[in-house]
From TrEMBL:
Enzyme class at the top of the EC tree: oxidoreductase
Descriptive protein name: 2-dehydropantoate 2-reductase
Residue ranges constituting the Ketopantoate reductase C-terminal domain according to the UniProt record: 197-309
Function: Catalyzes the NADPH-dependent reduction of ketopantoate into pantoic acid.
Originating species: Marinomonas mediterranea (strain ATCC 700492 / JCM 21426 / NBRC 103028 / MMB-1)
Length: 340
C-alpha cells in the first residue's frame, strides 16, 4: 500500500466506475464491498463513447466523463473485516442515506488528516457526517452527472458522459493540512476536478435529480425519454417549481450566481443531462425496480424542507415514491398536470 492508495467504499455502479477510473490512472485502488465480491478485475462497457455520448478522442486528463477507459482494470477488493491499514484518501460511493454508516464502519482505518471524498447525489447528509470526522480530516463533496449502470458484480456500463466536480465541504481544523493533501491531489484525478463553491454545484445537480430521478423511476423510463411527451411537460413544470424555490431566502446564501438557477438555465441543464445520459436508467429507477430504499428524502425531501412555499409537484413525486399503494393515483395526477 502506498500514499497513493485510495480506499473506495461501495461496489455499486459509481464505485465500480470510479475504481476503474482511478486504477487506470495508476492509483492503487482498494475497493470495499458489502454484499457481492467484485473480485480483482473491473470490467467497463462504454456506451458513452460507442453511442457518441462522449468525446471520441482519448483524453487521459479528462476524467470527468469523456476519457475512454481501459476495458479491464485491476483493483484489490476487500470487506471491512479485511482492512488492516490506515488510509489517507477515502472515496465514498454509497447512496446518500448510507454515507454516515459507511464512514463510521471504516473510521478506525482513516488517518487523522485523511481526505474524505464523496460522490453521492442529494443533500443534507454531509452535514450529518461532519460531526463524525476526525478533527484534522477534510470533507470533499463531489457531484457527477456521468451515467453508470451496474451490470453484474464486477461490470459497469458507462451510459453517458457528464461533468464531475469536487470541492471542500468543510475546511480542515488544522492549517498545515493543505501540505499533506498536495502530493495526492497533484498526482491524481481529483486535482483537475476541484471547484471553489461545491455547494452551488450540488444545488444545481439537486435540481437535475429532483426532476430526472423520480420521473424515470415512477414511469419506468430511461433518462432520454424525459425529453418525450408527456414527461417533457412534466419535467418543465417541475423545473419551474424548483426555479421559483431557488429564488427564496433560505437557499440564497448557498448560491454564488443566482442566474444559473433561472428556469431557462435549469431546464437546459435537465435536458442536457437527460440527453447525455439518455441510455441510462437513473439510480432511483434501479432502486425502485429492485425494491431498494431510494434517495428521494435527500433529493425532493431536501428541497421541500428548504422551501418556504409548498412544492406540490415535488411533494407528489416524493409521496408517489414512498407510498407504493398510492403510487398509481399519484402518477395519474402527475400526468394530468403535465397534459393540462
Ligand atoms: N448510477 C448513476 O448513474 C449515478 C449515481 N449517482 C449517485 O452516486 C451514488 C451511488 O450510486 P450508485 O452507484 O448508482 O448506487 P448503488 O446502489 O449501485 O451502489 C451503492 C453501493 O454502496 C454499497 N454500500 C453501502 N454502504 C456500504 C458500506 N457500509 N460498506 C460497503 N459498501 C456499502 C452498496 O452495497 P450493497 O450492494 O450491499 O447495498 C452498493 O453496492 C448515489 O448517491 C447516486 O445517486 C450520481 C450520478 C450518476
Ligand atoms: C446523472 C443521473 C441523472 C444519471 O442517471 C444521476 O445522477 C442518477 O442516475 O442518479
Amino acid at each position: 500500500m502506498t500514499q497513493n492508495t485510495c480506499l473506495i467504499i461501495g461496489a455499486g455502479a459509481v464505485g465500480l466506475l470510479w475504481s476503474a477510473k482511478l486504477a487506470s490512472r495508476n492509483t492503487d485502488v482498494h475497493l470495499l464491498y458489502r454484499s457481492h465480491n467484485p473480485g480483482n478485475h473491473i470490467h467497463i462497457e462504454d456506451d458513452a463513447s460507442e453511442a457518441g455520448l462522449g468525446d471520441d478522442a482519448r483524453d487521459i486528463d479528462d476524467l470527468s466523463g469523456n476519457a475512454i477507459l481501459d476495458p479491464v482494470t485491476k483493483v484489490k477488493s476487500l470487506t471491512v473485516d479485511e482492512l488492516d491499514h490506515k488510509y489517507d484518501n477515502i472515496l465514498i460511493c454509497t447512496k446518500s442515506f448510507d454515507l454516515v454508516d459507511a464512514y463510521q464502519s471504516i473510521r478506525e482505518f482513516t488517518k487523522k488528516n485523511a481526505n474524505i471524498w464523496t460522490l453521492c447525489n442529494g443533500m443534507g447528509m454531509h452535514d450529518e457526517l461532519l460531526p463524525h470526522l476526525k478533527s484534522g480530516q477534510k470533507l470533499w463533496a463531489g457531484v457527477t452527472s456521468e451515467g453508470a449502470l451496474k451490470i453484474n458484480h464486477n461490470t459497469v456500463k458507462r451510459t453517458g458522459s457528464g461533468d464531475t466536480f469536487f470541492g471542500i465541504y468543510k475546511p480542515s481544523d488544522k492549517s498545515n493540512d493543505v501540505e499533506t493533501t498536495q502530493p495526492f491531489l497533484e498526482d491524481t484525478i481529483f486535482h483537475s476536478l476541484l471547484v471553489p463553491n461545491i455547494t452551488h454545484r450540488m444545488l444545481e445537480k439537486l435540481a437535475v435529480n429532483c426532476v430526472i430521478n423520480p420521473i424515470t423511476a415512477l414511469f419506468e423510463i430511461r433518462n432520454g425519454e424525459v425529453l418525450d411527451e408527456p414527461y417533457k411537460s412534466l419535467a418543465e413544470q417541475c423545473t419551474k417549481e424548483l426555479a421559483d424555490c431557488y429564488l427564496e431566502a433560505p437557499l440564497q446564501p448557498l448560491i454564488s450566481n443566482a442566474a444559473s438557477f433561472s428556469f431557462f438555465n435549469l431546464v437546459n441543464r435537465v435536458y442536457t443531462v437527460a440527453q447525455l445520459t439518455r441510455l441510462n436508467h437513473s439510480s432511483m429507477h434501479e432502486d425502485l425496480k429492485f425494491g431498494r430504499k431510494t434517495e428521494i428524502e435527500n433529493i425532493s425531501g431536501y428541497m421541500i424542507k428548504q422551501a418556504t412555499n409548498n412544492l406540490p409537484l415535488q411533494s407528489t413525486l416524493l409521496h408517489a415514491i414512498l407510498s407504493p399503494t398510492k403510487r398509481e393515483q399519484h402518477k395519474k395526477a402527475l400526468l394530468e398536470i403535465a397534459t393540462s
